[in-house]
Hints:
Helix content of chain B: under 10%
Largest sheet of chain A: 7 strands, mixed
Order of helices and strands of chain A: EEEEEEEEEEE
Strand content of chain B: over 45%
Number of helices of chain B: 0
Oligomer: heterodimer
Largest interface: A-B, 23 and 21 residues
Order of helices and strands of chain B: EEEEEEEEEE
Helix content of chain A: under 10%
Radius of gyration of chain B: 13 Å
Number of strands of chain A: 11
Distance between the termini of chain A: 40 Å
Strand order of the largest sheet of chain B: 2-10-9-4-5-6
Number of strands of chain B: 10
Structural class of chain B: mainly beta
Amino acid sequence: QVQLVQSGPEVKKPGASVKVSCMASDYTFTNYGISWVRQAPGQGLEWMGWISPYNGNRKYAEKFQGRVTMTTDTSTSTAYMELGSLRSDDTAVYFCARTSFWGFYFEYWGQGTLVSVSS
Amino acid sequence: EIVLTQSPGTLSLSPGERATLSCRASQSVTSSFLAWYQQKPGQAPRLLLYGASTRAPAIPDRFSGSGSGTDFTLTISRLEPEDFAVYYCQQYGGSPYTFGQGTNLEIK
């Protein structure tokens, strides 16, 4: 069945960057967009942005514009999310999610990657 | 940005009971582009419903959704032990695609 497997936990210092990967399997990677959603400890869900592996089109939430970069590697069916200028309030679990062809809802999710930002 | 407000914050019920969860939007959600997710501790969210009322594959029919405009409801007809979790609504009618703050459905 569809799987999204994410990279392991990261610990970063304020001001650094982090890059999280998300490897997709059991579907045609270029047929569906990938969104990134984060969840701070004990908090709700926050959509960060979306990328189309088919043509590289991107849409970022305004809050993250200038700090986030989403990319894909179609040869390995892997999506990447890089977040820069990290702050302590970026500490969260970051999820990738396959985005429906029919709208921006999230059909399948990765297991999540904890990014901790601390000096 | 569309703000989604879920109520109640916590709902305490017993297995076999009916659960009704509410999601209210700060402005009308285009074409009922509203989804519901279930999240258990330490797990990723799971898609339950989209288009306000269409169940995702493999979702039991005890889960149903209704509503339009600014008011949406998720109903679980008869609670099973595995249904106790946090539930989120999400609108995808306009970017940014926002989530409600969640309803914690706990065992009474």
